[in-house]
Design a protein that fits this description.
The complex is a heterodimer of chains A (112) and B (116). Chain A is mainly β. In chain A, 0% of the residues lie in helices and 56% in strands. Chain A is built from no helices and eleven strands. In chain A, the strands form two sheets. In chain A, strands 2, 4, 5, 9, 10 and 11 form a six-stranded mixed β-sheet that branches. A five-stranded antiparallel β-sheet of chain A has the order 1-3-8-7-6, with no helix packed on it. Chain B is mostly beta strands and 116 residues long. In chain B, the strands form two sheets. In chain B, strands 2, 4, 5, 6, 9, 10 and 11 form a seven-stranded mixed β-sheet that branches. A four-stranded antiparallel β-sheet of chain B has the order 1-3-8-7, with no helix packed on it. Chain B is globular. Classes of the chains: A mainly beta (112), B mainly beta (116).
């Protein structure tokens, strides 16, 4: 089955700096890669996603890049703010069904 | 985005009793829903895939007789934790793909279960 690895597990940045979180996946058939932000005790919220037919997608301060050949994708957050502090999860989904396989999560801390 | 609602948000039960958690898709039909368990500071662990009108598919290591899943309609799946033990205490969360938005996955609010 699919295996998703996520790095780093924790990331501390200064407010205004950029943050980058990287994920790799094992199943070359995976074609959908969402990113979720989860605050303590709350549901994961979809913040951006990318499908395998594009290499990059941007939404304001958030961008995601996908390298299908290398089987890795990354989340980029620019001009970080304290409210960006949360746990971020990457995920991958293959062709069979709609099941997501999640990475281990990254705890992002943005220091004011 | 689409809305998935989960209830209850918090529940405390005694050891040996059963607890039912509901997951509803409010503005779309979900033939499939997913149930996850999340331990503190850990990732989401898939427990089972709930299939409308048929048996759930359980992940390896998840006891199907302990975690009963029923998906009786296109908008409702339930997870019943039977004969609960303190080690079952956890955050349980469901999700569903919205077919009207390319099967984007949306999550319920989650349910904190504490077994005393």
């Amino acid at each position: 089955g699919e295996n998703v690895e996520q790095h780093p597990s924790t990331l501390s940045v200064q407010e205004g700096d950029s943050a980058v979180i990287k994920c790799t996946y094992s199943d070359s058939a995976s074609n959908y890669f969402p990113w979720y932000k989860q605050e303590l005790g709350k549901r994961p919220q979809l913040i951006i996603d990318i499908r395998s037919n594009v290499g990059e997608k941007k939404d304001q301060r958030i961008a995601v890049t996908l390298n299908k050949t290398a089987k890795h994708f990354s989340l980029h957050i620019t001009e970080t703010q304290p409210e960006d502090s949360a746990v971020y999860f990457c995920a991958a989904r293959g062709n069979a069904g709609n099941m997501l396989t999640f990475g281990g999560g990254t705890r992002l801390m943005v220091k004011p | 985005g689409a809305v998935v609602s989960q209830h209850p948000s918090r529940v405390i039960c005694k050891s040996g009793t059963s607890v039912k958690i509901e997951c509803r898709s409010l503005d779309f039909q979900a033939t499939t829903m997913f149930w996850y368990r999340q331990f503190p500071k850990k990732s989401l662990m898939l427990m089972a895939t709930s299939n409308e009108g048929s048996k759930a598919t359980y992940e390896q290591g998840v006891e199907k007789d302990k975690f009963l899943i029923n998906h009786a309609s296109l908008t409702l799946s339930t997870l019943t934790v039977t004969s609960a033990h303190p080690e079952d205490s956890s955050f349980y969360i469901c999700s569903a793909p919205d077919p009207t938005s390319g099967n984007t996955i949306y999550f319920g609010e989650g349910s904190w279960l504490t077994v005393v």
